[in-house]
UniProtKB/TrEMBL annotation:
Record protein name field: Transglutaminase
Keywords, sorted A to Z: Membrane, Transmembrane, Transmembrane helix
Naturally occurring in which organism (per UniProt): Pseudomonas abyssi
Residue span, Transglutaminase-like domain: 399-470
Domain of life, per lineage: Bacteria
Biased composition (Basic and acidic residues): 329-339
InterPro entries: Bact_TGase-like, Papain-like_cys_pep_sf, TgpA-like_C, TgpA_N, Transglutaminase-like
Length: 670
């Protein structure tokens, strides 16, 4: 079949739809993908103009094979989300060259709807959502254009119709969003491009957190029931690192897999909610001693929380923290003690010797810990985002030579010395503090709030937290990283366009916080609207969570929406066309009420004769109108002159028409 069977307007909208659908993906794809689409679009246009032909079978087969090879070399695999989406996009482009009839074009349009949805696997923000609404309108316009006859050459009519259809579907969409059951997914997918996401790692080496602290990206938001605690209490635990290889701290998987330890919690409680950004990992952020009844979480032995699935999108959860927490006060097993004292034999000899001196001078573990903290406070240590590069014995060089470092240097060195002195200790990584957004009353915790501190096990007390950074730079804990780095001027030095750098500029900061509050509400009310939130909404609005009653209500509301939309669809259409067509349609609408409307295939003179027979008293008015109509439609007269005569003739005929259809005449016309 010929390509001419695809209307030109439909092809124009289809090419426009491809551009709109492809744009959100281009930032993740190689540059040659855009060039390939331009080539496919140009070829398709030449086919439409009947200058070029369709690619042959050999060329199509070669193109398909090259597509698979290109995806493999670009992504390193043909399996996985990134590779699958890229393959779909390339096939979406190449399908342009195979469209021979409207049915083929329908396949391309439906594939466009599917690819439109894949963009939400990578981002669910407000800007993309609004943009995808535009994409849906353009795709529907292409679908409408495909059904239009070539004679109706009005591309904007298709766009207006598409927008109207989606607006009419909006109430039904809102009902489905609010009332459709939130079912658990049957499978999970790995987050795309996790290696490019900024965030905490499950290892910690010298300068790792210092590098992370140069990022202005958001880690999570936290809101509280009641007053927000002071910064000194806002230690957000994520990971504990118990293994040390001489340079890098990492998790001990064996300790992590053990059953949660018994924790003694007492004092005032603090309820809070966290909306975590996607990381591709499953660790979460919690205050010390937190518990959560969410079925999507589990508690680990080291007093941290984990999600059951990697965070491939924003993830919300609630937890409760206690004012006083005692962990593992009764003692450690011998295996745990050995693992929490583990150190490489050939690393940091000066730190080992110093630890032995401290051990000889201080009989109790608590005294030794306090002595070490006083050492950091009294000696000329410096807190900096620009620490010098350290060699093989990193702790020795930091403690006795450079004395310049970020939080990971202090936490790592203190943990090493405590272990060398025979005190079980581990590094804790997470975030500390946060920025208050007064518009929403919640905390913003960024990547530059990343922090490391230590925990030591003390007899009779269990695990106790200590922060050597506070001894060197208390302003970091009390007022945040920006204040601590003000003199050095290194805060977000590598991110000159970050909004957090301009907190001192009032209108910029207000704009930033307002936009963040909008995004927070979007994530809280829309993206985080899961089964628990849905049931709470039902109980608050309906006083019940019974799905049978909810089902009856939903069906009633859906029926009401459909009735309203049907009434809108059945309302009298506004007349459109040339002056002669408008007059014809207006007369037809009036005569339809008398049962005398124009019949299919009936011309003006035939209709005129039938009306003269049915309405003998109006013959003169009928003849006057139809004579003027034929003159304007078929005779070569000036439009203004003909219109001036047609309109009065129509009004004369309409005024003369009876309210009811008269009985059929007994005699035929002369």
């Amino acid at each position: 079949m010929s390509a001419a069977l695809i209307p030109r307007n439909a092809l124009a909208w289809l090419l426009s739809a491809q551009v709109v659908v492809l744009l959100p993906h281009l930032t993740r794809l190689p540059w040659w993908v855009a060039v390939l689409w331009l080539g496919c679009a140009a070829w398709r246009v030449q086919i439409q103009r009947m200058r070029w032909g369709y690619p042959g079978r050999i060329l199509r087969t070669a193109g398909l094979l090259l597509t698979g090879v290109a995806v493999f070399f670009s992504q390193g695999t043909l399996i996985g989300l990134d590779a699958t989406v890229m393959l779909l996009l390339l096939l979406f482009m190449l399908k342009l060259l195979e469209m021979r009839n409207p049915r083929d074009a329908l396949v391309v349009i439906y594939l466009g709807f599917f690819i439109l949805a894949t963009a939400f696997l990578f981002d669910q923000g407000i800007p993309l959502t609004l943009y995808q609404c535009v994409g849906a309108v353009v795709l529907v316009a292409a679908l409408i254009g495909l059904q239009q006859s070539p004679a109706r050459n009005d591309p904007w009519r298709a766009l207006r119709s598409a927008a109207a259809m989606l607006l009419q579907a909006l109430p039904l969409m809102l009902l489905m969003f609010l009332f459709f059951p939130r079912l658990a997914p049957l499978w999970t997918i790995n987050l795309p491009s996790t290696e490019s996401r900024t965030g905490l790692s499950d290892t910690m080496g010298p300068a790792d957190i210092a590098n992370l602290a140069q990022s202005p990206e958001l880690a999570f938001r936290a809101s509280f029931e009641g007053d927000i605690p002071p910064p000194s209490r806002l230690y957000w635990r994520a990971l504990t690192l118990s293994r040390f290889d001489g340079r890098v701290w990492s998790q001990d998987r064996l300790l992590e897999r053990r059953q949660p330890l018994a924790v003694e919690r007492s004092g005032a409680t603090l309820d809070y909610q966290v909306i975590a950004q996607p990381t591709g990992r499953n660790w979460l952020y919690s205050l010390p001693g937190s518990v959560s009844d969410s079925p999507e979480l589990r508690a680990l032995r080291d007093d941290t929380l984990r999600a059951k699935r990697p965070l491939s999108s924003t993830f919300g959860y609630t937890a409760t923290a206690f004012e006083r927490v005692q962990r593992q006060r009764d003692g450690l097993t011998e295996d745990e003690r050995q693992r929490l004292l583990q150190l490489p034999e050939d690393s940091d000899p000066r730190s080992r010797a110093w630890a032995e001196e401290l051990r000889q001078r201080h009989a109790s573990d608590a005294e030794l810990v306090n002595a070490l903290l006083r050492h950091f406070n009294q000696q000329p240590f410096h807190y900096t985002l620009r620490p010098p590069t350290l060699g093989r014995h990193s702790n020795d060089e930091f403690l006795f030579d450079t004395r310049r470092g970020f939080c990971e240097h202090y936490a790592g060195a203190m943990t090493f010395v405590l272990r060398a002195a025979g005190i079980p200790a581990r590094v804790v990584t997470g975030y500390q503090g946060g920025e208050l957004n007064p518009r929403g009353g919640y905390l913003l915790v960024h990547q530059f709030d990343a922090h490391a501190w230590i925990e030591a096990w003390l007899p009779g007390q269990g695990w106790q937290s200590f922060d050597p950074t506070f001894q060197v730079a208390p302003s970091r804990i009390e007022r945040g990283l920006e204040e601590a780095m003000r003199e050095e001027g290194s805060f977000l030095a590598d991110a000159p366009l970050a909004g957090s750098r301009y907190r001192d500029i009032g209108w910029v900061n207000n704009l930033r916080l307002t936009w963040d509050d909008i995004n927070y509400q979007w994530q809280l009310r829309v993206l985080n609207f899961q089964s628990e939130e849905q049931l709470a909404l039902f109980k608050r609005w309906l006083g019940t969570a019974d799905w049978r009653r909810i089902g009856v209500l939903v069906l009633s509301l859906v029926g009401l929406v459909m009735v309203v939309q049907a009434l809108i669809w059945l309302r009298p259409r506004r007349l459109s066309g040339s002056p002669a067509q408008l007059a014809w349609q207006q007369l037809d609408q009036r005569l339809c009420k008398l049962g005398l409307g124009v019949r299919a295939g009936e011309g003006p003179r035939d209709w005129q004769q039938r009306l003269r027979q049915a309405l003998p008293q109006q013959r003169a008015a009928i003849d006057g109108f139809f004579d003027r109509f034929v003159e304007q439609s078929y005779a070569q007269r000036q439009p203004g002159e003909a219109q001036a005569q047609l309109k009065p003739a129509l009004q004369t005929l309409l005024r003369s028409l009876p309210r009811r259809r008269p009985p059929a005449p007994s005699q035929a016309l002369d």
